[in-house]
Amino acid sequence: MTHEAPLSPETQLVHAGSDPGRQGGYVNPPVHRASTALYRDTAEMDASQADPLKRGTPVYGRFGTPTGRAFEEALTVLEGGHATVATCSGLAAITTAILAYVRAGDHILVSDSVYLPTRKFCDSLAALGVETEYYDPCATGAAIDALIRPRTRLLYLESPGSTTFEVQDIPAITEVCRARGVATIADNTWATPAFCRPLELGAGVDAVVHSATKYLTGHADSILGAIVCTQESYPLIRGAAIRLGQCAGADDLYLGLRGLRTLGPRLARHQEQALDLARWTAAQDGVASVLHPALPEDPGHTLWRRDFTGAAGLFGVELDPRFTKPAVEAMLNAFRIFGLGHSYGGYESLVVPADPAAGRLPGTWSGRGPLIRVHVGFESPADLREDLRTALKALHTA
Predict the structure, then answer these.
(1) Which controlled-vocabulary keywords does the entry list (predicted)?
(2) Could you list the residue range(s) of the whole structural domain that residue 195 is in?
């Protein structure tokens, strides 16, 4: 008996979720803008209602369309999961995944370095009787084990953190959580499945969330989220998405699927240009440190080398503590090519100021210099360096 060789990630990016046979022979699926599904008879209608979690069954547009299925199937293959649930935004993916697990009286552990809207949502869970405890993102298995209580239901992590870029020991954390019966969710937006697959690290997380708005779509023109599930977590998360009325728009799903096809070469370019600029920036006067796990001097570099196959185009630049807020604002206002704006993952370069100390655990960030977050796009590296050089001059002048 012969077995087909597994496809490489590069090939999967191009072909996953595509089936020209069910797409009229065309390479790309059509955009299905649909709400109502019609049935041949009552028997078919009853069958569709009997199992609303079944993928591919036409029930109602909110439950999925062929366009959504193509995107979900592709991302499932890329992450090595069982099934994917598409959502209307990255934050919707985060909140839906968390709400699928928590109940009144539960205790959850959340990485102290998570995306700020994630933190605000977790804080709001107190009104529902859920206690959130934030843990040091550099904590390993033993430290996590000490934090687990009898009512701990969930651990939520983001690696690297999207502002301060700490890399977490996912294998050690999942091993402890699996043994203690605690579910785990990982935000994989920074690395994408092209560079990291948390479902396969150690005991594996129970679900992976994405802001597909970022690298997966890659063109700064769509708002989209996704939750990639294991076989065990899928009914719970899919059921929560249905109850919460969660779904993604047809056009955004199509743009997400289109973005996946070029994710490989785009990320390669992001990685190359970001590392080049990060090294250059680290040597400039006024820069205290560069927070980028692919740099050998970064505290998370060893874990990054073990668990990741590449690095995204997003990193942090910590300035010397002597610089005041007006000086940093003068620097930000001096950029000509780097746009001053939130989000990342598109073709354009961006900068945004960050204040990690706001809301963080005492001592995990306090006393350090001003931080800016840099996303490196596809502009000329020489132009980007010159733009940053000009901005640093403005910083010193101010």
Answers:
(1) Lyase, Pyridoxal phosphate
(2) 9-261
